[in-house]
Amino acid sequence: MRSASGSRPVTLTAVAGIGTIRPGADLAEMIATGLGRAGLTVARGDVLVVCQKAVSKAEGRVVALAAVRPSDLARRIGERHDKDPRFIEVVLRETRRIVRMNDHVLVCETHHGFVCANAGVDSSNPLRRGTVTLLPVDPDRSAADLRAGLGRLLGVEPAVIVTDTFGRPFREGQVDVAIGVAGMRAWRSLSGGSDWTGRALHASAPADADMLAAAAGLVVRKEAGEPVVHVAGFRYARGPGRARDLVRAASMDLFR
Amino acid sequence: MRSASGSRPVTLTAVAGIGTIRPGADLAEMIATGLGRAGLTVARGDVLVVCQKAVSKAEGRVVALAAVRPSDLARRIGERHDKDPRFIEVVLRETRRIVRMNDHVLVCETHHGFVCANAGVDSSNPLRRGTVTLLPVDPDRSAADLRAGLGRLLGVEPAVIVTDTFGRPFREGQVDVAIGVAGMRAWRSLSGGSDWTGRALHASAPADADMLAAAAGLVVRKEAGEPVVHVAGFRYARGPGRARDLVRAASMDLFR
Questions:
Q1: Do B169 and A255 touch (CB under 8 A)?
Q2: Is A256:A99 a contact under the CB 8 Å cutoff?
Q3: Looking at this predicted complex, what is its ipTM?
């Protein structure tokens, strides 16, 4: 589908009917089945965007709070924040550094380097009551594994992005960002190019993977069990890429 | 176009052939003409995403550096940053507060409350060599004016989002965000809802306007004179909305 002038649209479609994801599930196979049921064909150059929680559940990154023994620090923070100290304990285990902390929020740098609330530990839409999900140990690896698995099942390897929903400084509301990337560059450098006056473009580096994550956030319906979005028509930069390429080194960051 | 399971896709199409935008131009009319040429029909519920620079040029928010006399402060900063002190002077005029500053970057809070590099003053793709663009004085008003103008011309009022490309803390690369919104809520509150276990969702507030801005960033081609993106299929929350609703008050911000 092209418009009369030849601009090719980008289309984003939520993949329904993935089903309940349990630890050990073959997520690539569930996604392939869901795509088939939805009548969606994956072509070369397409992207599949997958919510973190689906990946975390399949990878068994699920913790039952009943089995967690909070440290003294977790107890003190839990009391101050009016939160379950066992939840705080899990957050602290996933944390490399506490970036900001007040009575309402704990902004953490995870072991991967992501900066987000509660180190990505999430108690909403759990697998079972009383459980929380953790971020995948290596979300870039998760994305690469999904890409390979889908390639075997579909005969074509889509780019894969694993997303999570992050708050951010300065702005209200949340937007999904990429925490895992496979099969495409996470960002594109426009440096070396120039604008129409011939002026060199320096700092221009569109964060494609984050734009795709945010775009997928428009159609994904996590709460309805639709954690996967099919994207067609976006011309990404091919080549190896990782979400970690989007992580600014703490030493280069004016806000840590 | 629906997939077999009934999921309605969101489609994003760059609008080609808008042409060169000069101060005083009727941007709504230029966009309507471009849409017609591209064979794109705007239906009720569609969104048009427009890059800031197109709006700024049409509104005459263009400054010739030759006419700027830098203050002593601008001279000192310019020297330290190895930048044109006249450029710095324009940045300082657009700034309410300098949030961070080092030898490479000046992160400013604009008079609107946006936090971004150089207070949104931009020297790339200028109208003429030696000019820079400023953010619109009131980008929410710009969006509302465009919406009204397009409504008159098209017979249907699309939601309108004015975007700019911002860097962000913690992460490399840039993503487009909403600086002006009309005809839809800038963010949606999921609070009051619950997940499948019945657990209340508290802080869940998808920043729809920012997600639309980022999604449009996938297809927009500013450098090719395609600063407008047509979005169909996204079910936004109707009602009055403003990009300023996305601005976190400095007193509530852990990073200012």
A1: yes
A2: yes
A3: 0.94
**Interchain CB contact of A123 with B (< 8 Å):** yes
Q: Which CATH number fits domain A63-131: 3.90.1660.10, 2.60.40.10, 3.40.47.10, 3.30.360.10?
A: 3.90.1660.10
Confirm or reject contact between B255 and chain A (CB < 8 A): yes
CATH 3.30.1330.100 domain extents, chain B: 11-59+138-249
Crossing angle of helices B208-216 and A208-216, in 10° steps, is 130
Residues carrying CATH 3.30.1330.100, chain A? 11-60+137-250
- Check residue A1 and give its pLDDT: 45
Tell me, yes or no, if A6 comes closer than 8 A to chain B by beta carbon.
yes
User: Whose CA is closest to A176, among B195, B214, B217?
Assistant: B214
Domain A11-60+137-250 CATH (choose: 3.30.1330.100, 3.30.420.40, 3.40.50.1820, 2.60.40.1180): 3.30.1330.100
Contacts of A54 (CB under 8 A, 6+ apart): A18, A21, A27, A227, A228
Q: What is the pLDDT of residues B184-227, one digit of tens each?
A: 999 988 766 665 555 555 568 999 999 999 999 999 987 777 89
Q: What is the pLDDT of residues B179-191, one digit of tens each?
A: 999 999 999 887 6
Q: Cβ–Cβ of B187/A173 closer than 8 Å?
A: yes
Contact at CB, B218 and A234, closer than 8 angstroms: yes
Alpha helix (H) ranges present in chain B? Answer: 27-38, 52-58, 72-81, 85-93, 139-154, 208-216
Which chain A residue shows the shortest CA-CA distance from B40?
Answer: A3
Residues in B closer than 8 angstroms to A120, CB to CB, are: none
**Residues of B in Cβ contact (< 8 Å) with A229:** none
Contact B17/A5, CB-based, under 8 Å? yes
Please, which residues bridge with residue A122 across strands?
A: A133
Instruction: Note if the pTM is more than 0.80.
Output: yes
* A147-156, B56-65, B139-148, B220-229: segment of lowest average pLDDT: B220-229
Query: Which residues in B lie closer than 8 A to residue A206 (C-beta atoms)?
Result: 165, 173-175, 217
